[in-house]
Amino acid sequence: MISPAVSAQDVCFKYQEGTRALDRVNFHADPGEFVAMLASNGSGKTTLIKVLIGLLKPEKGKVVIHGKDLSRIAKKDLFQTVGLVLQNPVDQLFAATVEEDVAYGPRNLGFEEDEVQRRVGEALACVAASELRHRAIHHLSYGEQKRVSMAGVLAMNPSILILDEPTAGLDPAGETLMMRLLNKLNREQGITIILATHNVDLLPLFADRIYVLQRGRVLKQGPSDEIFCEHEMIRDACLRLPYIATLLHKLKQHDGVPIAGLPLTIGEARSRLLELIPDNLIVKQPEVPQ
Q1: Which is it for the CA torsion 275, 279, 285, 290, positive or negative?
Q2: pLDDT for residue 106
Q3: Residue 139 to residue 154: CA distance in whole angstroms
Q4: I need a surface site. Which of 60, 139, 163, 234 has the fewest CB within 10 A?
Q5: Are 223 and 193 in contact (CB under 8 A)?
Q6: What is the DSSP string of 113-166?
Q7: Domain residue extents for the chain
Q8: What is each CA distance from 25 to 52, 98, 160, 210, 223, in whole angstroms?
Q9: Average model confidence (pLDDT) for the chain?
Q10: Of the candidates 152, 149, 153, 188, which has an alpha carbon nearest to the alpha carbon of residue 168?
Q11: DSSP labels for 151-195?
């Protein structure tokens, strides 16, 4: 039986002022899986991330990385296994140039300069930022800073990548680019992705499983179609359905439109609506010769 890439087992955490941030949380991500933590602000997702990466120590429970207790993993080994991308790239970028920043981790581990440069090039290519290599950090846009901060983590060749609100502050094009980059890392390189967010619209396209958190507890976990069919739970967690699902849910609930299931993406919605339209009203597009 293959061990999870990372798991939290009955984890509890309370801050010094008394806030109970995590209450018997069980969480896992299998190797190569794309898992999302979906929660509104203050629900414990950032605290859980810090516990998973070892920045906070749980008062109860434990975290296991590839079958080994997190408390027994040397920091040097941990940083090459699990990468953390913070919500605000300013908290992560510190060097003068992009190249220097991305090279910092491998150099700090003592790699030869040829290996350092190879890792820098590959990491920047992974996040579509090769052209930024010699750019000054303070000349980058916010979206570019996000991608460069991720490149700095990827240069350590982690098998697990944990991201806190990676699309926060990005415009729609930037959100789509970020999610496609993460999907590529996951599908093509097999990197386990754990993403914390309250943005529900892109998750059905990318996440294998979703955990819904509220007040430090896991309300439910499962694939997108199981999560978003729980309308009351989504509402109680101060979240919402994806916009396309909201529209079709209202069509079903208020107008009696017999749409099968609850489509979560535009592609699914198109298929369901086409089922309701008579064939003679559908304009068939000519096939393009191969």
Answers
A1: positive
A2: 94
A3: 22
A4: 139
A5: no
A6: HHHHHHHHHHHHHHTT-GGGTTSBGGGS-HHHHHHHHHHHHHTT--SEEEEEST
A7: 241-277
A8: 11, 37, 20, 14, 18
A9: 89
A10: 149
A11: HHHHTT--SEEEEESTTTT--HHHHHHHHHHHHHHHHHH--EEEE
pLDDT tens profile 143-201:
999 999 999 999 999 999 999 999 988 998 889 899 999 999 999 999 999 999 888 88
Residue partners of 185: CB distance under 8 A and separation at least 6: 126, 154, 161, 191, 193
Strands in 6-14's sheet, in edge-to-edge order, are: 20-29, 6-14, 60-65, 68-69
The two three-digit tokens of residue 181, written as one number: 């980059």
SS3 content of the chain, % helix, strand, coil (to 5): 40, 20, 35
Residues pairing with 25 in the sheet: 11
- pLDDT-derived band at 286, boundaries 50, 70, 90: low
CA atoms of 167 and 36, how far apart (whole Å): 13
Would you state the structure tokens that stand for residue 35, as one six-digit string? 């898992």
Q: What is the pTM of this model?
A: 0.87
